[in-house]
Design goal:
13 helices; 19 strands; eight-stranded parallel sheet; binds zinc ion; 451 residues; binds N-(aminocarbonyl)-beta-alanine; globular; nine-stranded mixed sheet; 32% helix; alpha/beta
Length: 451
Amino acid sequence: MDLVLKGGWVVTAERVEQADVAVKGAKIAAVGPDLSTEGAEVRDVTGKYLLPGAIDAHVHYQMAIGDLMTADDWFTGTRLAACGGVTTVIDYAEPTSPAETLTASLERRLKEAGEQACIDYGLHQVVLPGQEDDEGELAAVVARGVPSFKVFTTYNQRLSLDAIGRLLEKARRLGALVTVHCEDHGIVTARKEELIAAGKTDPAYHALSRPERAEVRAIKDVIALAGEAGAPVYIVHVSTGGGAAVIAAARREGRPVYGETCPHYLLLTEEKYAGPDGRLYLMCPPLRTAGDNEELWRHLSAGSLQVVATDHCSYTPRQKNAGTAFYNTPSGVPGTETLLPLLYSFGVRSGRLTLPQMVKVLATNPARLFGLYPRKGDLAPGSDADIVVFNPRKEVVLTAAHLHSAAGYTIFEGFRLQGYPEATYLRGRLIYEGGRFLGRAGDGCFIPGRR
Ligand code: URP
Ligand code: ZN
Ligand code: ZN
C-alpha cells in the first residue's frame, strides 16, 4: 500500500462507517476496519470524514463571450476547486459559432484544459442552432467520451423547441443526456422590454426581468418534448420551487427527468439585487425568494433534485460593474470552492440532508448521470483515490481573502461555517492541505464519460 487514511468516518451515498481507506497508486485498494499499514504512509484522520472528491458538474472556466473572458481560467478554476474538496469538474465545449463543428470545439477545449487543469475534468457539448441535426458529429462527440449535450431555450444560442425535440431523439439513440438551460425566451424578452420602456434598468430589476413563470414554462415544455422523444433530460440550475415541482411531478410518473440546483439558489435571495453590490450577484436565472430557497431544499432532500453544482462563471467586480443595466452586466458568479462546505454547514448540519445524501448530490449522482461512475463519485476498491479529508469541527467565516478565485470576491462573504475540507487527494496525490494548494497545472486528466 502507498497510503492508509486511518481512523476516520467513511461516507458514501449508502452509508457512514468507521473504516480505514488504503490507496495503491491512483486507486482505492481497500476500505475496511484495521487495514494493514505495512510499508505505507499513514495519515491519522480520527474524527474526520472521508468523502469522495466532489464533482462540480456545471462550471464555466476560461469562457469567452465576445471580448469578455471569465476571471477564472482552467488553472485558477481547477486550483480553487481543489481547495474546496472538488476533484472533478464538468465544463463545456461550446462552438464559437454554428460554423465551428462540435468536434472542433471539443478538441479545442480539451487542449486548453489539458495544458492547465490541476484536477480531473469532463465536458458537456453545447449544441448551437443548426447543429442538432448532424447525427455524425453528435455521435463523434459521444464516442470521444462526452455523453451529454447542452442547449438553451433563451440567449442568442437558443434552440427552438422543435430543434430541442429533434436533438432529444438523437440523444436517445446515442445514449446521451440532453441538459437544458430553461427560461422561456418570449417571457424574458417581453418582460425586459417592459422594464426598459419604464426606465427600470438597474440591477434591482434583474429578478423581475426573468420571472419564475419563465423557468416553469420552459421546464414544462422541455419535459414534454423529452416525453415525446422517450429520452431522459436534465434541467440545469433550477432556481424556483415551481420549477422543481414540475420536475418532481414528472419523476413521480416514473419519467427519467433530472434536476440540478446551485448553492446560491438555496441560500440567497433577490434582495441582494437592491443592495449596493447588486451587480456582483447577477446571474441567470436570478436569485429568488426565501420560499424558493426552502422549496429547493425540500426537493433536494426528497430526491426530486439530484445534483447540486455551482454554475461557476466568475467575473471581477470591475468587469461586473462595467455593466450599466441588468441586461448588459456580465452574468454569472464564482462558486466551486464553497460548494462542499456550504452544503455541509447548511444542508447536513442544519438537518436538511444526511451525510450520504450530501455525497449523493455532490459526487455519486453526477458521476452516474454523466458516465463517470464508478471511477468517480465513490469510495470503493477500484475507484480513483479522489478523497477529501473533511474536518466537521473547523469553524470558518467565508471571506474572499481566504478563497482562491481570480474574481476576488464571494457572494457568500461573512457566512459562518462549521466544517471545512482539510485535505484533498486526487488519484492518490495530496493536492490541497490546510489552506495550501499543492497541485500542478496540467496534472488533471480528461475523464471520458460512458453512459
Ligand atoms: O448567469 C449565468 N448562469 N452564467 C453562466 C451561463 C449559464 O447560463 O449557465
Ligand atoms: Zn445557464
Ligand atoms: Zn452555466
